[in-house]
Design a protein that fits this description.
Blueprint: H1 2-16, E1 19-24, H2 29-34, E2 38-44, H3 52-68, E3 78-88, H4 92-98, E4 105-114, E5 121-131, H5 138-154, E6 160-161
Parallel strand pairs: 1-6, 2-3
Antiparallel strand pairs: 1-5, 3-4, 4-5
Length: about 160
């Protein structure tokens, strides 16, 4: 009986320690074909209480991911505008004391792509990244969110939803 209880607790912990990302309204293939390189990146904390170092880290991961895919051209690329809509990060103490019961860390952003001159919006999407694990920190969420934004920009598959 004890083994069964321990096994059930272990399974619940593993299921509860998941990280998720969703992209709402991904770019259509015609929009992806039109978008070849990206340049200027503007991230607005939008009153979300996201600290400046977190915003800088997300931007850094986006630039790095685009450079790895040869999609970054600071001079002639499409403009990217990111508005952070929601930001939640548990304290280290909360994560240590309460684990998954302390809630989930995460960020929701609206990503808009504009023509190089900034006059025409080519596409927009909501990107959400969450980490319910008891381990991890701001850097992990910044990396995960930056990588998911790059996947959206590159037109790569990800967990996509079309819900509003």
């Amino acid at each position: 009986m004890k083994k069964l209880i321990v096994l059930l607790i272990f399974i619940l912990c593993i299921v509860g320690c998941a990280s998720t990302t969703s992209i709402t309204d991904p770019l259509e293939s015609s929009e992806i074909a039109e978008v070849k390189t990206f340049g200027e990146i503007d991230i607005d904390g939008n009153g979300s209480k996201a600290p400046p170092h977190f915003i800088t880290a997300v931007e850094s991961y986006i630039v790095q991911g685009l450079q790895e895919r040869s999609l970054y051209d600071s001079e002639n690329g499409k403009k990217i505008s990111i508005s952070v809509n929601n930001y939640r990060m548990r304290s280290g103490f909360s994560r240590m004391m309460f684990g998954i019961f302390a809630g989930k860390d995460g960020i929701d952003s609206t990503v808009k792509i504009y023509s190089p001159d900034g006059n025409r919006m080519l596409g927009s999407s909501e990107v959400s990244s969450y980490n319910m694990m008891a381990v991890g920190n701001q850097e992990d969420i910044a990396r995960m969110h930056g990588e998911e934004i790059v996947k959206f920009l590159a037109g790569e598959s990800s967990e996509k939803t079309n819900d509003s």
